[in-house]
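REQUEST FORM: STRUCTURE PREDICTION
Request ID: SP-0412
Submitted by: Lab K.M.
Chain count: 1
Length (residues): 121
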Amino acid sequence: MTDKKELIKNIPFAQAVNINELVDYEEGRVVSRTLSSKSHVNITLFAFDKGEEISAHTSPGDAMVQVLDGQARINIDGEIINATAGQVVVMPANVAHSVLAATRFKMLLTVVKQPVVIKGL
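STATUS: Completed
RESULT:
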């Protein structure tokens, strides 16, 4: 599996992996590891120290947060959602949202966007 055109990166292939061990907590930081970054999908693993956040922003695609460890406070257009390990929250495209670590927490973020279609091809 040495093909450089792999769609997923930064994770071992063909073996069982504990996803929580792929990114470590760091004091006062948000740490991330990109697993895929393509025109139609982004998959990123995050570890947040308690109190750290990603401030309000929008995304061109639907974004799904899967909480792997700890607790997050997710604000979607003013609605606060408290999510814990094992839960998922979907944030709709083009709607302001933010993520705050209520405790140290880890999440897998998957953003799915409309594929780009080029007419005439």
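NOTES: The chain is about 0% helix and 50% strand.
Reviewed by: T.R.
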